[in-house]
Amino acid sequence: MQHDYNDLIYIFNQCFEQAYNTRLVKGGDEPIYLPANEHVPYHAIYFARGFYSSGLHEIAHWLVAGEARRQLEDFGYWYEPDGRSPARQREFEKVEIKPQAIEWILSEAAGLRFFASHDNINGEPGDAAPFKQAVYEQVKTYAEKGLPKRAEQMRKALCAFYGTDDKIELSKFDVTRI
Predict the structure, then answer these.
(1) Domain range summary for the chain, segments of one domain joined by +
(2) Which stretches of the chain score pLDDT less than 50?
C-alpha cells in the first residue's frame, strides 16, 4: 500500500482545518507545532521532510494536547536533543506513551507498520522493552475504553481512506514487532 504524505495532509486538513483552525504542513528537518500568530493565521503542525510516519507522530501529539497546550509552541513540552542519558531518556519516554499509542493505532488504520520511536540514536536508550510494553498497554486501554474524540475522528478518516477495518483489533498489535 502506498503512503503519500499529501494524502495524510488532505485527510488531516479535511478533519480539522475548519473546526480547529489547524493544518498539517510538510516541514524541514525538524518537526514543530506552531500556534497561530500575527503572521500566520492558523495553527500549523510541521512534520519532518514529508515522511508519512513523522506526520502521524506529530498528529498524535496534537491529538493528545488539550486546548491550552495547543496555544503553546510545541505544546509547551521540553525537548532535549538526541544524546540523552538513560535517566533523561526515561523522562522523555513518559511523555511519549500516549502519543505513540495513538500513532500506533493511526498507523494500523492507515495500513502502515509502526515502529516505536526512542529518538535517542546517539544517547544511551537503555532497555526499550518497558517503554514498548507501556505503549502497548496504552493501546489496550484505548481499545477497551475508546480513543479521545479527535483521535477517533482521525482513526475513522484513515480507515475510510485506506479501506482498513474500522475497529481497533488488539490481535493486530504485537509489542514484539515495534
Answers:
(1) 5-76, 86-177
(2) none
